[in-house]
Model the fold of this input.
Amino acid sequence: MKALLSGNEAIARGAYEAGIEVATGYPGTPSSEILQNVATYKTIYSEWSVNEKVAMDAAAGAAYSGRRALVTTKQVGMNVLSDSLFYTAYTGLEAGLVVLTADDPGMFSSQNEQDNRHYAKLGKFPMLEPADSQECKDFIVRGIEISEQFDTPVVVRTTMRTSHSKSVVELGGDPAQASEVGPFTRNMQKYNCMCLWSKKRHPILEQRLLDLAEFAETYPDNVISWGDRDMGIIASGVVYEYARQVFPKASFLKLGMVYPLPKKMIKAFADGVKKLLVIEELDPFIEEQIRAMGIDAIGKALFPPCDELLPQTLQKIARESGLLPPVEKTLPALDTPDLPGRSPVLCAGCPHRSTFYLLNKMKLPVAGDIGCYNLGTLPPFNAQHTMGSMGASIGVLHGMGKSNLPEPAVCTIGDGTFFHAGIPPLLNMVHNHGKGTVIIMDNCTTAMTGHQDHPGNNYTLMGKPTKEVDIETLVRALGVEKVMRVDAFDVKAMGKALKECTAYDGTAVLIAQGPCIFVSRNPQPAYIVDAEKCVACGTCAKAGCPATIKIDEVNPKTKMKKAGIDPVLCIGCDICRQVCPTGAIQKPE
Amino acid sequence: MSEDTYKFLIAGVGGQGTVLASDILAEVGIRLGYDTKKSDILGLAVRGGSVVSHVQWAPKVHSPVLDEYDVDYLIGFEWLETLRRLSYIKPDGFILANDCRIDPMTVTSGDANYPDKDRMLADFKNAAQQVQTIAGTRTALDLGNVLCFNIVVLGGLSKILGNEPDIWRAVIEDRVPTKVADLNLTAYEKGRELIN
Done:
């Protein structure tokens, strides 16, 4: 049977066909849809773990117990889980373990453009790289096979394009029935990384890599297809598809396994062509290894290390460098050249709006964090001055608090991000006499990645009811003495609480509470503007709501356009009414 | 299987149903017997940003991403977004532009001006041999649900392509929520009627 699947949907299908029984992960673009699709297969236990490291440990525990396991993460989540992934490379496992990392070349939704292929070399485990949805499915199955054959975790690396593009997939059969697992294997010398035992595991790990390199020579997903012998191209992942399109006549070595490399195969391929190209998105991971073999290749001397390496970029470089004949193409000049940009915005009715409206007014320094609320960085708010990694805001705030700044500092962190990595730094502030205000923007969901559940919710990924953790209780238990909980839609109360917290000499937590509009959809009738009362002062525009628009009527004195409200977008959250100084914005009768 | 190649680009605004439309278009390609690939830009774009979907039907598709100057059909869900992707259309390509304006934040805040519609249309005609506007949004509003405008536009596209309507109807039924299936099938027929 054939189906049109995204790479992420195909990975979930692969997990099913591979007989994976435990799947864990933390949401992050471009990986989030994998577990959401895994959850539709009832043979698999799946969960959103509290962060990537916890997900990795839980999957290791399942694989130690004899259950095949999968962990999913976006590229930067690998940094969080790598500490645990690395010990599994030493211990090996009782059943197959695959870690899926979805990288983000082009940085569509990430803070950096790291190339996670390097992790394979650093952590000493094999890595597979699928080029389309069919391979996304198949490589999960193969990953489990390799994991069990070589007693190693296997990492499968996709990119945004492989994860989010859809292509035709030939589906495989149902997995064999799950077997009973015996009692837990008590093999401390293998599974307890105490230094004296772990030291003995290291040579085993090194031998395993040699064995895998030999295996790679005949691995069926490393494929040579001979074409024109003047040009030979080594590529993997979706870049292989790009290169096939741009150089249809060339010879190709397509690597399905990007670590360890099949050196004999590469040598034979290089010997068989006149000019060798290594085409890689981001870093020269393969090129450097090939050069270390003493083989000359054209790679990063031509192809840039930044951004996606799309076919049109490849084509342009190939034509400019003489690899392909030049073609003249000119685009007709536009009559309307300056296009207004269309940045993402906080939705109409978003609970984060009041916080950023106030922070912009108070002009405080703000350490930001990762989530929808990073949109508070953009105009009209301009209200998050740093942002780096999950949970960083609280630690950064602590450092600011120890720096004798002439002004009080605050940080903004969402509920999901607080659960993920905000608890240890807040505990650190309490212990080390921190000073600053932590604003936990609690919208009751992991909003930006698609509204996944977290410990503050009363349901799990598999739809089971569960205990919801109350953030205020948790924060008080951590030892924070100044805690305020405020309705995020009450601008006045929020302003008062912010003043009180920022005047406090110590660690203060302000929980700004209001559900995401996608969690609790309770639209009220759209608000209206009394054009006679509106003086076109522009205050409402500072609340940055997409439903607040400008109308053609102007204030005769200032010639400024008066405000209006888009009745399709407005859900009556009331924030614009509260900030309007003339009472022009009104709730409808 | 046909030896023809079709390259489509759908340009819209987050929330307009661009991804659903490209899913339907890709599925139709499979049922017509083509190898099919599609690629969307997701992520932050869903919060009201620009969205673009690349869809290809061909005997064999390699790259899921299309090049500039290479698209046969540019399907614009919104004026400004259609203009933004104009560099993708082939000179002998076809632009199907939905008559819809959604102001970006920079325009509502007064920091930028929305381009003049006639000048945008002139740009479209300068870039592509065939340009057709379609009143998808108006038609959808008349049907009582603005969200089904994407299916009105796809209806128009299917007429332009000359495909067998039954395949489209079946895919639409499979892909849209059951409770709005009839509405969307009506939207599809209305879209076909809008194209002569």
Notes: Chain B touches chain A through 57 residues (CB under 8 Å). Chain B has a mean pLDDT of 92.
